[in-house]
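[Automated response] Your request has been received and processed.

Submitted sequence:
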Amino acid sequence: MPVLNEGRHLRAAVRAITVQDYPGQLEIVLALGPSDDDTAEIAAELAGADARISLVDNPSGLTPCGLNLAVAASTHEVVVRVDGHAILPRDYVRVAVEVLTESGADNVGGVMAAEGVTPFEQAVARAMCTRLGIGGSRFHLGGAAGPVETVYLGVFRREILDRVGGFDPTLRRAQDWELNHRIRKVGGVVWFTPRLHVTYRPRADLPALARQFYRTGQWRRGVIRRMPDTANSRYLAPPAVVLALLGGLALAATGKPVGWLAPAGYAVGLLGGAAVTGRDLPPAAAVRLPLVYATMHLAWGAGFLLSPKDLIPDLPSTP
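Generated structure:
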């Protein structure tokens, strides 16, 4: 588990691991970045209370570096990747190992079950499990078990991580997707199973959500620059929306009423989509849903369009 500024969720995330019903041995390795909150103190307290928990230093604070350091410090043949703001169900490790064995896959994962507490978090959670909000990935929407492009988190055979060289340290975002891409390129199998559900805590406010999606858009553009064949309509839709809206507003500013068609059409589609997907939400969450959708689309699209060309190296760091 790579952790950075996870004081709010770390105790609950680690507790969910310590009570797993897996019949074999477990070790828990926390890779500690330079947090600004009380994450390090909480981690030390947890490690002092449970001999299965060990700590490694991750000076860069970068997720892929922390993951590689934690994997290197671990000893078992199955590696379970966990986030500091994810809550594993009690049967997660047991079921994952069963699916690894039954499917013969190299990495398995399940549903990223976003759950919010506040009305804003509830709106974000709903948006993250709809096609309108985040596309059609099975780990967001659910679906039948089988091979997929990528999964949330991941439970790996150590041998495949050794074979492909672990996580790419040049990728601050999209490192899971890129790793799964390399696994599939060497003939490995990435497997989705609806039997696994991980509770994910979404961002708590609008600025944090905007930053998350802006940065994700930036890094997705970087990955596509490196691997152009990975571009698809799901990734290109948000920047296309941003360009259409800007173009429409520019036309409207010159006195051409036709320019309002793009922003008006987007607003109508957004409000209609939010009304359908949020009809069973509490009212306080439902009224926030259109703004959440717009923030996710526009922040991701802007990040994609403004992604620096030197964000990541042009060539992969591993074969």
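Summary generated for your ticket: Residues 206-226 form the longest helix (21 residues). The mean pLDDT is 91.
If you did not submit this request, please reply to this message.
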